[in-house]
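Worked example

This section walks through a single chain of length 413. The input is the sequence exactly as stored; nothing has been trimmed or padded.
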Amino acid sequence: MEEKRTINELVAEVLKELERLKYSYNSICGFRAFYKRIIAFANEKGVLYYSEELGRAFLKEKYNCTINYYTETMPKTFKSPIRMIRVLGDYQLHGVIIRRIVKKPGYVKPPQFEKELTAYEEECNNSDYSKRGLRTRMQRLFFFIDYLDARNIQHVNDISPEIISDYVKTIYPHHEKSISSILTTLRVFLRFLYLNQCTDEDLSLKVPKQSKYYYPSVPSVWNKEDVVRLLESIDRGNPTGKRDYAILLLVVKLGLRVGDIKSLKLSNLNWQSKIIEVRQDKTKNTVTYPILNDIGWALIDYLKNARPVSSSPFVFIRMNAPYEAFGRDANLYNIITKYTRLSGITVPKGKRHGLHSLRHTLASNLLEQGTPLPLISEILGHVNSKSAGVYLHTGIEGLRLCAIDPEEVFKGV
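Given that input, the structure is written out below as tokens.
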């Protein structure tokens, strides 16, 4: 959709489109001032038309910015000028302004795609996707739908391989794991459209595949001493402390996910058999955990002496009115950060230290104790035992056993 426009014409169209998209007055003023400098720069160079080369030269000369913003992470220092440069390039290539990724809690489906989107959402619901997983999947898909709408596509059957290719170009700046997720979501949706006879061609075959293999990052784990310090820093004399202590024990000792802790109901606690039976929010599998002595007493202390009087069926609820379950998007991150500070634990820069890292710590400790991977996978509630394989990277003692002894190698030589 590339048209030959002078840089002045391109800037004028972009500013007009920003107004149509209802960007704020201050934002448009910022874009206008920035583009005046680019036009002046182009005039100095004797360039009539905008190009990616011109944009890069401008950033290099005016900001000393030489990164490839399509393949490298954008530094905060250059985020604004790079964004404005990319808006020009995107508009020249696609004829639309690619909006920045922002969550839209109340997404309004474009009318021309509403029927297909609703049907796809129902299909995902019937496939028992978790609420969080479905929300993430639909969020990724809405960006593609917005792109189609901006390109004035009026029916899903009007989607072409060229449109798909153009859209894929817009996601290059993302991390490779994000790109993989976006492409998978797009592929599944296009396949759904074809199988439900919404499109004449199976366009999922036109979605490119990543040539670069994704290597999962090594999980963040805690030192055993720090875990003990974390738990000891909790004031178990007040109601909130009693609740938080019980929550953290469930993660540290049993490896429960945050979603399963939030959805844990009083009816899931079988005190007679001393077990907790949970239908995992992520996998939909029913998993049974033992009520260990310290966990049992922590739960009893919380339920008898701390839990507010409430009709809520959930075990863990808010400590302030209204006394209800945690919100849908609550990740309980504030709980662990609170006690990390109180215990004086220093978290290295870049290291994750959320509740999920305590799950990683449990898995790593089990591995060091010689627990087989399939059993670790079962304890953590993984669908596939391969998911637990990543913890091999954290089991130092296990890795030492795998090391080759040079003397053994040369014995038979």
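What to look for: The chain has three domains: 7-94, 111-206, 224-363.
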